[in-house]
Amino acid sequence: MKSRIAAALLSLGLTLTSCAHAYEVVEVCATYLGTGKKYKVETRVYQGSELNSKTNSFDYNSFSKYAVIFWGPGQASVIELDLSIGGISAFGSTGSDQRGYKWELSTSMMFCY
Fold first, then answer.
1. Which residues have CB under 8 Å from 7's CB, separation 6+?
2. pTM here?
3. CA-to-CA distance for 30 and 27, rounded, in angstroms?
4. Residue 34, SS3?
5. Which of 14, 81, 94, 97 has the smallest number of CB atoms closer than 10 Å to its CB?
6. What's the rounded Cα separation, in Å, for the pair 97 and 32?
7. Considering only CA atoms, which of 34, 54, 36 is closest in space to residue 44?
8. In angstroms, rounded to a whole number, what is the distance separating the alpha carbons of residues 97 and 67?
9. What CATH number was assigned to the domain covering residues 2-106?
10. What residue ranges do the domains of the chain occupy?
């Protein structure tokens, strides 16, 4: 299962670098709620149906929104946002990654250190 997810993420990364798509790119303060550690990162926000199309899978809920953070080659967090309406706001949006870990994403960088 892990190799299937890794292959899908690698495929997603290669697809994203070679084509223009309808995802939204957002600079966020990503807080891992397990430790409180904060990261200033760029994320791509997708509809689940678009992720399914890009990864040739049905692994994602078509009606959910996902924030994808690429940490490095072959490393990404795919965070299913708790609310599928709107995008990531300055007030914060919460969600869980593919391992079930909770995150909060915010466009406000004021306290991101």
1. none
2. 0.78
3. 9
4. coil
5. 14
6. 10
7. 54
8. 9
9. 2.30.29
10. 2-106
